[in-house]
Amino acid sequence: MLDRRAVLAAAPLILPACTTTRARPIASPASACLAPVRVAADRVIRTVAGLRPYRAGGFVVRADPFGDKRVVHNYGHGGAGITLSWGTSRLAVDAGLPGHSGSVAVIGAGIMGLTTARLCQEAGFPVTLYTKALPPDTTSNIAGGQWEPASHFAEDMVTPEWRAQYAQALEYSWRRFQIMVGEDYGIRWVPTYQQTRTPPGQARASARYMPGLRYLDTAEHPFPISGHVIRFDTMYAETGRLLRKLEQDVRIAGGRIVVRNFDSAADVDALPERLVFNCTGLGAAALFGDRDLIPVRGQLAILLPQPEVNYAFGGQMGYMFPRPDGIVCGGTFERGERVAVPQPGDIDTILSRHAAFFGGFRCSA
Fold it and tell me: Distance between CA atoms of 278 and 71, rounded to whole angstroms?
């Protein structure tokens, strides 16, 4: 499948799970038109850039002794942070809470820190969340928000044990996000179209998380592309709304939020809590010496909302996600870049690719 990971790796600018369901091509009449995105420089309402915390060996969920404390790590999710958040946080609290009594510390207020804090609270533990920044000033706030893991590990660098963790995390996150669908958290189901290299009839490991999956022939879609196209339904998060609501949930449940920076492991050691969850993302490289953790910059152009655009697309042109707060056009995958600032030339390239794609729509209606 030409998923977001393949798209981003192949284009400088622009999943495995346990089940292997086969998608069957079906016959259907020519599709109605899909509304094209109106791409123009004067419709750009903002541009953003964020640094993904990428590890070729995959995310880290692990409990380590740390002086008289225990530190449970939950970081390194690359471009799959929103998707995996509830799942790896579930793994983290299951590794840390048994046998513990008293309050817990969570470091970091991105999506990992917030979901970890909520799960600790749901288990009955008092939580203090320490963070140097709150939403909207976290990397998570910049994420596009599609529920589909992408750009977060290298196939030849992960172990069977890690793959087992990954499968568990996917399953829990998939179920948890479903019970959050609605305006409160800004989660909704959206029909999604993707270019794919996987032909009809070939097993697709990710089909477990692609309800309604089917292949479309050329007459069934308006896209100006050749090759296979699939359609399925998945969830999308309006990330700003999601993070604000989760922060509110933490506070309502009695959580303390303390704004402070951690310059070294000694700052962690000085905390009064004996159980600490490390959800610092890229900060874990300096704080705990993870040399495998690197930044990967992603840039997005956000266009004025178009309520009539009620589908998402991903392919060689990049990807487009419709959200109530704007049309997300992405993106880039820039290894080693450490400056989270949009680059005008890269944004222009994103826009030109999207303009050519949506300007070439065929319509059969």
Answer: 7
